[in-house]
Write a structure and sequence with these properties.
By secondary structure, the chain is of the alpha+beta class. It has helices at residues 3-9, 17-31, 33-44, 104-114, 135-138, 154-162, 168-179, 190-210, 213-222, 232-239, 253-256, 289-301, 336-357; strands at 51-58, 76-82, 88-95, 120-127, 147-153, 226-227, 242-246, 258-263, 275-282, 308-310, 319-326.
């Protein structure tokens, strides 16, 4: 039953869950166009009577408009046609464990607005987690009567899937969605209740790991005020992490940045653990990005340290080098807080070592 899970694990990229799942869903839609039309009508509250599916594409690139910084690449593009020539196009952007990129939906809406050859245009944002969007902000630069924006959740597609005739692949798809928490709907589970009851206690433990001498050392290393804990809930909601990070108007690290704390709190399996991490990161449009990325590659290739690179070859992503450990490595210790604090202190010493070895980085 775990065919899709095993195929994802064999991927060369580190956990490309959303891209992988887009390909899987596209394949299922192509094999089951009737199901696709049912889902489209449910997701958009629209009717596609008399229209047939003509093409389903994944990761199709669109050249940037004048106001855009880079190409746009919706996860799914669905095209429908009818005998009267009134065709439809649907952009689908999927999120499972991440959030919308910077003005991503707005760019997709503007791309749709620039395409002239379709009578009806739809933009669907489908997520696993609750992430409300403002339709009017997304459509502010396009004719709203020409483009329809809709939000939906993966658990609603899962519910339709369970009512569809049973096949082996349908069962595999449903099983994959269950494992990755896309089958969870609008009901509190016993685990949810336990999490709510213990949330304050867990947050206090996180604060204890990041406070006192760790916070002071972090401040000394970067020489600027720390955005913590006031930004903690913003980080938790939008990035699934609880971290402190260095950022001032004067510091180039506002664009390059350092964060330290508890990452990947959106684990997809009960066998996974959050990650304790220190990351030096750079945003996509940093002016001296190529030189910094070159240094990051050099640091991550150095076998004498434990820094590893993340998204260093992706030009449109926040790229970083990180020191990380799964939380499971700290569980055998007698004092979890003390051992995690020591990891942070050792990591900050490693950051200072990098400052000495690579003074050309924008410290």
């Amino acid at each position: 039953m775990d065919l899709l899970v095993k195929l994802l694990a064999l991927s060369e990229k580190p956990k490309p869950t959303e891209d992988f799942f887009s390909e899987v869903v596209a394949y299922f839609f192509k094999r089951n166009p009737d199901f696709l039309k049912i889902w489209l009508e449910t997701a958009t509250d629209s009717h596609f009577k008399g229209q047939t599916i003509s093409r389903i594409s994944t990761q199709r690139s669109y050249l940037p408009l004048e106001s855009h910084e880079g190409k746009s690449r919706p996860d799914l593009v669905i095209e429908l046609e009818s005998e009267d020539g009134k065709s439809s196009i649907v952009f689908v952007e999927s999120k499972i464990s991440s959030r919308e990129g910077k003005e991503q939906l707005k760019r997709y809406a503007e791309i749709l607005g620039s395409i002239e050859s379709y009578e009806y245009k739809y933009l669907i944002y489908i997520t696993r987690d609750y992430e409300p969007k403002d339709k009017f902000l997304i459509l502010c630069n396009v004719k709203t009567n020409k483009i329809n924006f809709f939000q939906t959740r993966w658990f609603l597609l899962y519910q339709l899937l369970t009512q569809f005739p049973e096949t082996y692949f349908r069962e595999e798809l449903a099983h994959f969605m269950e494992i990755h928490k896309m089958a969870v709907g609008n009901h509190f589970s016993p685990l949810d209740i336990v999490s709510l009851v213990n949330f304050e206690h867990s947050l206090n433990l996180v604060n204890a790991c990041l406070d006192d001498e760790v916070k002071d050392r972090f401040n000394n290393v970067f020489g600027c005020s720390i955005q913590w804990p006031s930004s903690g809930f913003h980080q938790l909601r939008h990035h699934k992490r609880i971290v402190m990070f260095a950022s001032t108007q004067q510091s180039p690290w506002k664009q390059v940045g350092c964060f330290m704390g508890f990452d990947q709190l959106n684990i997809d399996s009960a066998s996974d653990y959050p990650v304790i991490t220190i990351a030096l990161q750079i945003q996509p449009d940093f002016s001296n990005r190529d030189a910094v990325i070159s240094r990051m590659h050099e640091i991550s290739r150095d076998s004498t340290n434990a820094w590893h690179g993340v998204s260093l070859n992706e030009t449109d992503a926040w790229s970083s080098i990180r020191l990380s450990k799964d939380m499971k490595y700290f569980l055998p210790e007698k004092d979890h807080v003390a051992s995690i604090k020591q990891f942070f202190l050792d990591g900050l010493a490693a950051v200072e070592s990098l400052r000495e070895r690579y003074p050309d980085l924008p410290w």
